[in-house]
């Protein structure tokens, strides 16, 4: 059944809204502590309310939100960022459409900015030091929005200051393999400047890898092949298409961890202990600076040395050579060098989160969280304002029902607007540190909607397995944008699918890395999390991400003209995320299907067996048993829920089941599992170096054992990781068994 | 009001018991999963049931339990230890008086035993190596119970094998200060054998401290001054009094951590990853062997060198000299040396816990745990069988009510008999590792009754502040043994009291270290815990502990004749612990008073301020604020409970409050706080080196800063520890606020 058909049955709901406002405003107690005595312990999801919410989520209001949010650049902690804090507070405190309460929490965090006085520079100089060529220091003012003091010049946040100079080398994506290849080709890296292109590995990794080879400085650019499907001419790019203009530069954080760099594991309150920034870790070891492909072309197309491998070639219209230094027949002298001047500064700044709360009627101590960051690099129309525009519309619709007295969720809902995400998920991480105990005890799930629309082809969801079922339920009842007549679910399955051993062909839900604010929730706190967006038709573009990502071209018009004219994809995301939110906050039984972890565990097990088969006497018996125990416990658990649902379960029975559902994800945490990894403690989703999707600790330990020539200590770590996984799965299974069994 | 008066009102309860058995046996469903539908969500503590339990706890049955339990030596994993596992299972599976279910969990753990073939020896040898004197290899068979193959010879568990030889030095208690004193006196320690007396520092610390000075081997003995109030003659000691006979030797574990040494943080299942025992840490670095004071006298009274300081002197009837070597006019040649031959072996053994469960009627997913270890060093009548005898009687009385159908607790009760405690709390620690997630989510409290009767003067309770109120409530309603007519509470306050800023004069509840199986529950899991016993009149003895502790003289007759003739102190402990257990399992609102943490925090704060006042710009403002926030939140929280108790709160409201009560203790855990300390993560109760009772991390960091000449890094750690405490208190306060506030 599709959402559009469900809607047909609802008549007059909108007409009732206005009338209810006055009644609701005076009749509903505000700020009362305990649940209203009239709240029924059996309160369940109300499908009519769900329908009303779906109807009222308005594409045009989302568009107007986006216009306001992206009107000006709002870099973290900038005056405009603070103005948006006030905008959010105002919306969430609105007497007609606000929430029960809203507040800010402020943290004093370490950010990194380019110097106002000394611009970062990239120059080609000759042997006497004369400047022969300079890269742009800002993007071209194509639409009138790329100039002015609020547009932060392109830079690599947290890159250390320095003015290295040396012959230029092309290092592809700056991966470990790329540098090994250069070494193999006997390209001298010591004291060189390497030019890398975005992609392949994380930003910071390019500098970390380079430094190991004695490289003095790093440049990074976006290749038209990777971002523009090859297009690179001004008239092929924005504002003529969605493609990145030649002067566009991707900004970004080059910090290797997340959270405030100076206060790991502690909330960054003003009085908190802070590391000396010299003792802080995770910053790039050498200067690094991003440039546009217009400038990269000048450098790269004049490079000398051997021809780079075929898969290192790009879309700049010339052969890419390795260097070092320039070619003899180019525009630069062969001994010309590149000088990189980075003058970034670390600064302690106050960054705010905004929290808005709807008190649960029955179980106010159960929190369903929904958040997005607020800060952008420049105007940030797509990133993050497409998400915030949806957040504001969803909170408006729910707030209006709340203020009218039409609805109050069973559980509490917490809306959040995070600060300083672009610098490393800082606001959300500090939140999880400050609210650690409460969240660990009470958080049901975290829904993240960062960029809500990358493109308008299909839904894309990342999350932990238990959230699959609620997302599917939501997506099946909402119609996809466009004229296909398909539900979001049926459209989705055409683009991303997999063959499930349990369900057959289903849309594939991706896994959660550390790309947005869900990271501290899932990795540090073990809260079931998800990220929801609309995205590309991969048959139509191979762009690494939407082309103007983190540039001054990510503006309202870009979204309005190219990403989602009509904002129907925004509306689709608002409906999907809103439906998921309501199902989580209002269903009597939490709609988390823990049994859906079984498929993941089974596939991780098979991959681990293939990887490690008969190696060093690794016995998989205990792991096989643990997976089987989990499968059995989860199946029986679901049967018990089904039986309870047939009857009229008492409130405590439901609560006990829901506690098991809520806390399952927590059981996968082990603070001893990855002592080297900051925050990561989820034994199934920690970072994994190998390419095989399996238990990350096991995979990493195995890689280490392979790389260190099979030292006994390395194999002992493989065994230790195996035991950690077994203990986690046994513990998880145990929590799903009947609660009186111990 | 005293318990004895309450009892007066109950007539005929006992008569009903027999009748109920048949009804109960057939009428109550066994092993059903969900709470019986008839269970009332408002089920509260039934004072009549409580009275019945108090009445039925039978001193003579406890005595008979003790006789059976201590009949034979039952060293961990010995055949008799396994036989007692069966005894416990049989009792807990008894159809008339058993629990809902009982089972064993087995772990493969690393223990340490003396060699069967090569006895450990301590000899005095002359310069040609001829043996001039040998210490006893076993205790004198005074009562016929000190001989035979099941009596393990005295040894220091986990001491490494070795046969060091050297001149003898007396090192008092083997503390760091003691070795500094010897160094000051220029006593050569390198390659010496040092003789130490028990007390002052932990067993293992004596060897650790000695090894730092190049000492080759360590002896340890029990001085009559420390254990016998000076008495040392055979006719003054057991079996003629409770005093330790001259040949008695305290055995014990010298392992510095707790839990299985090879599987830290992992349950020691057969397939678990194990450290190589060479890589395991926490074992004594050099051989160490305990001896009796009869032998210590021969060594110490013949020692040469300077006279030891006054507070190093003891009760052996001679001047204690420092050495090195023997005196000129003694029985040994001056160059005589001491040879210590230790042949201990590490062995992997299977150790069992026994778990017995009573399913909760209303909230089966809330566990009140009650446990004691089962293993002893020899017969272990006092340690641990006085506790197990009480455990069996309490479980019999409750089991009988259960099987009759008279009673089922609101919450689940878990009884536990831990294995291998004497080697380092191994069974209980492995349990907390295996059941980590369940316990963290669901455990209400842990009650430990190890040695239940040290002596018969007064109750002695150690625990975290929230358990104070429930212990007081119980103790006020039970009459103390003897003819005083006082309640246990009023008797207690005469021996141990303090002036509370809130309550005035109250009995003082001690803090929890790592002396028994509560350690992993409070330190690793953050579960409110307590240890309950009857103990000494300190005006009548200064014995460090009951004199036959860990010797072959700790027998049934010892208890029956000297510690608790008539077993009325046993009964008092059974009633107190039983009442506490019932109140925790059955009260509608959990009887944990979180507000009682305020006094602790306030006193820790004051001590910290005194310690650190105006040092290195340490600002206490944030800590003061955090303490105040906690106080305010706890007070308001208690008011909300009081208000709810006046009305008829709905089941979910009660559950939410109880969750806050249960989980408060968890909020003090921080796995990043003490990275060097195995398992310790409770920021208020971790080990503290300084003598001032304050926040341990802060205190330890301060000591470190003082000792390292005020290095900036050390002061940074003080600041970090301060922030950890502040974050924990802020988090704790936050969880006590109204749950919808976030």
TrEMBL record, chains A, B:
Subcellular location: Apical cell membrane
Membrane-topology descriptor: Single-pass type II membrane protein
Gene3D superfamilies per record: 3.50.30.30, Transferrin receptor-like, dimerisation domain, Zn peptidases
Entry protein name: Aminopeptidase NAALADL1
Its biological purpose: Aminopeptidase with broad substrate specificity. Has lower activity with substrates that have Asp or Glu in the P2' position, or Pro in the P3' position. Lacks activity with substrates that have both Pro in the P3' position and Asp or Glu in the P2' position. Lacks carboxypeptidase activity. Lacks dipeptidyl-peptidase IV type activity.
InterPro entries per UniProt: PA_dom_sf (IPR046450), PA_domain (IPR003137), Peptidase_M28 (IPR007484), Peptidase_M28B (IPR039373), TFR-like_dimer_dom (IPR007365), TFR-like_dimer_dom_sf (IPR036757)
Record's GO cellular component terms: apical plasma membrane
GO MF, one annotated term: carboxypeptidase activity
Transmembrane segments: 7-28
Origin: domain of life: Eukaryota
A family per Pfam: TFR_dimer
Start and end residues of each Transferrin receptor-like dimerisation domain: 618-737
Co-factor requirement: Zn(2+)
Organismal lineage: Eukaryota, Metazoa, Chordata, Craniata, Vertebrata
Residue span(s) of domain PA: 165-251
Main location: membrane
Assigned protein family: Belongs to the peptidase M28 family. M28B subfamily.
Species, as recorded: Muntiacus reevesi
CDD domains in alphabetical order: M28_PSMA_like (cd08022), PA_GCPII_like (cd02121)
Keywords: Aminopeptidase, Calcium, Cell membrane, Disulfide bond, Glycoprotein, Hydrolase, Membrane, Metal-binding, Metalloprotease, Protease, Signal-anchor, Transmembrane, Transmembrane helix, Zinc
Complex and partners: Homodimer.
GO biological process: proteolysis
């Amino acid at each position: 059944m599709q959402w559009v058909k469900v809607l047909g049955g609802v008549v007059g709901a909108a007409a009732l809204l206005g009338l209810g406002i006055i009644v609701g405003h005076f009749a509903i107690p505000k700020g009362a502590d305990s649940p209203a005595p009239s709240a029924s312990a059996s309160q369940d999801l109300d499908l009519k309310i769900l329908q009303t919410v779906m109807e009222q989520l308005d594409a045009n209001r989302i568009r107007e939100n986006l216009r306001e949010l992206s009107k000006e650049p709002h870099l973290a902690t900038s005056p405009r960022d603070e103005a948006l804090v006030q905008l959010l507070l105002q919306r969430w405190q609105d007497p007609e459409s606000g929430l029960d309460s809203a507040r800010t929490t402020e943290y004093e965090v370490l950010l990194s900015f380019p110097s106002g006085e000394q611009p970062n520079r990239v120059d080609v100089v000759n042997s006497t030091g004369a400047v022969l060529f300079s890269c742009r220091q800002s993007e071209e003012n194509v639409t009138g929005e790329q100039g002015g003091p609020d547009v932060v010049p392109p830079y690599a946040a947290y890159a250390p200051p320095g003015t290295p100079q040396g012959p230029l080398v092309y290092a592809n994506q700056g991966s470990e393999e790329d540098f090994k290849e250069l070494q193999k080709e006997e390209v001298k890296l010591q004291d060189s400047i390497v030019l890398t292109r975005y992609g392949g590995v994380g930003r910071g990794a390019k500098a970390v890898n380079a430094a190991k080879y004695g490289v003095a400085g790093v440049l990074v650019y976006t290749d038209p092949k990777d971002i523009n499907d090859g297009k690179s001419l001004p008239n092929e790019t924005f504002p003529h298409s969605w493609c990145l203009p030649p002067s566009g530069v991707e900004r970004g954080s080059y910090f290797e961890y997340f959270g405030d760099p100076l206060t790991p594991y502690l909330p960054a309150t003003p009085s908190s202990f802070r590391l000396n920034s010299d003792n802080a870790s995770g910053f790039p070891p050498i200067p690094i600076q991003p440039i546009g492909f217009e400038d990269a072309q000048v450098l790269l197309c004049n490079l000398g040395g051997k021809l780079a491998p075929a898969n290192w070639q790009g879309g700049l219209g010339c052969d890419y050579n390795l260097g070092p230094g320039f070619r003899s027949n180019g525009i630069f002298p062969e001994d010309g060098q590149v000088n990189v001047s980075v003058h970034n500064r670390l600064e302690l700044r106050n960054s705010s989160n905004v929290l808005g709360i709807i008190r649960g009627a029955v179980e106010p101590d159960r929190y369903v969280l929904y958040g997005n960051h607020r800060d952008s690099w420049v105007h940030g129309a797509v990133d993050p304002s497409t998400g915030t525009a949806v957040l504001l519309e969803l909170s408006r619709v729910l707030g209006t029902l709340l203020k009218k007295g039409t609805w109050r969720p069973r559980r509490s809902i917490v809306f959040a607007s995070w600060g300083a995400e672009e610098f490393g998920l800082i606001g959300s991480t500090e939140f999880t540190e400050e609210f650690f105990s409460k969240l660990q005890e009470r958080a049901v799930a975290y829904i993240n909607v960062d960029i809500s629309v990358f493109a308008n082809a299909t839904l894309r969801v990342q999350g932990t397995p238990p959230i699959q079922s609620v997302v599917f339920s939501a997506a099946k009842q909402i119609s996809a944008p466009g004229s296909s007549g398909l539900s979001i679910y049926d459209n989705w399955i055409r683009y991303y699918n997999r063959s499930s051993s349990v369900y057959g062909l289903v849309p594939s839900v991706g896994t959660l890395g550390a790309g947005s604010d869900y990271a501290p929730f899932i990795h540090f706190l073990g809260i079931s999390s998800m990220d929801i967006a609309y995205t590309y038709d991969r048959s139509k573009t191979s762009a690494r991400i939407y082309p103007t990502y983190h540039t001054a071209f990510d503006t309202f018009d870009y979204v309005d003209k190219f990403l989602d004219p009509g904002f129907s994809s925004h509306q689709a995301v608002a409906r999907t995320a809103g439906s998921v939110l309501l199902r989580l906050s209002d269903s009597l039984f939490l709609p988390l299907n823990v049994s859906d972890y079984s498929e993941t565990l089974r596939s991780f097990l098979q991959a681990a067996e293939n990887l490690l088969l008969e190696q060093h006497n690794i016995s998989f018996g205990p792991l096989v048993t643990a997976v089987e125990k989990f499968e059995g416990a989860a199946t029986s658990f679901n049967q018990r829920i089904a039986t309870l649902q047939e009857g009229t379960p008492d409130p405590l029975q439901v609560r006990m089941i829901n506690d098991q559902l809520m806390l399952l994800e927590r059981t996968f945490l082990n603070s001893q599992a990855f002592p080297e990894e900051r925050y990561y403690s989820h034994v199934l989703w920690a970072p994994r170096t190998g390419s095989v999707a399996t238990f990350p600790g096991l995979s990493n330990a195995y890689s280490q054992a392979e790389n260190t020539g099979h030292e006994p200590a390395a194999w002992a770590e493989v065994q230790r990781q195996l035991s950690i996984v077994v203990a986690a799965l046994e513990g998880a299974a145990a929590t799903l068994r009947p609660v009186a069994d111990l």
